[in-house]
Structure formats: C-alpha cells, structure tokens
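Re: the 217-residue chain
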Amino acid sequence: MITLSNITKVYHTRHGKHRVLDDVSFSIRRGDSIGILGRNGSGKSTLTRLIGGVEYPTSGRIRRDMSVSWPLGLAGGFQTSLTGSDNARFIARIYGVPIEPLVEFVEEFAELGEYLRMPVKTYSSGMRSRLAFGVSLAIHFDCYLVDEVTAVGDVRFRERCDQALAERRERSALVMVSHDIDTLKKHCKTGGVLWNGKLTFYDDINEAASAYSALMQ
C-alpha cells in the first residue's frame, strides 16, 4: 500500500507562495486503478512526482510498502550522451533485473530502430518518451504512474501502450493523471478531481468525470 497523509506542497515563486496541493490524503492498494482529473497546472504532475518520490512534500507524510515506477514517459533521467540501449542497460543494473531481456523488450516495444543505438541527445521528445515508456514497462512495479503519456506516438503505438497498461493493471496498481476524460475512463475504475489544491475522490470514474465537467463549466 502507498499512503499519503495530509500532503501539502508549496512552491515559492516571485509572486509569493503557491500552494499546489492542500492537505491531500488517500491510499493506493494493489489492484487499484485511479484516474486523477485536473486542469493544466492544477498539480497533477506534482502529485505523481510526490507519489514516486521524485519530489518531497512541504508537509505531510508518504509511506510506501510497494515498489513505484517513475512517471511513464518521464525522460529527464536519461544520460543523453549515452545511447538508448546503454541507458536501458544502466537502468536494468540499478533495479537489479536481467539486462539483455530488458533491452530486447525495449527494442521491440519502443520501435526506435537504429536510434536505440544512437545517443539520446539525437532523439526527438517523442522518441525519448517512447524509450522511457518501454523501459518502464520492462520492469515489474507494484504501482505504475502514468502522466498523460499514452498520447505519445502514432495510433498503432498508442494501441500497444493501452494494451500493455491493461495487462499490468491486472497485477499492479495504476495511477493515471490527465485532463482527458476519455483516456481515464478507458484505464481507470475510480477517480479523483484535483481542484484548487483539494483532491476529491469518487468510487466510479464516471462520477469523477461528471464532477470535473461541471467544474469546468
């Protein structure tokens, strides 16, 4: 289980303090598929970074008893002077998983062709996201974080991403943040709406979608 207790996140800007999350509490259990709706800039990505441990809350506590992926599609951790293949090998060593099966999975899934053996700095942003998505799915996590990355690539690649997420949802938790209602309905059972720093949960993703639509109007 992953438990967030009374999480507040404040950023200091030139205009003063900006409270992105305000006393947010909830739990994530194995088998959950949670969709978080919110406008651009509402704090959705901040929430995924906090769950994944990329950032720390200003106050409150996060307890993790499950392994957590980095936000799928997050390519900021790659060493850009190394090839995609070398980055995949490096990540495999960090997580203690067999190297060659991971690289083979990434090569087959990301469909980068010869670019997999070229420096990441030569990649487009979409190619970096495909690499990150492939590496993320090659490693088993108890909880997968998804930050609107299913929009990456062509229709065929997006369909493969959807299928891969559905397979992992069978044995792991899934937390997906987006402002796209249809995407969340496709992958999630329950939902939450992040609005003015407050997170309100609903037992059904359709209820969350209706509440979000009403706020947007």
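Residues 77-140 form one domain.
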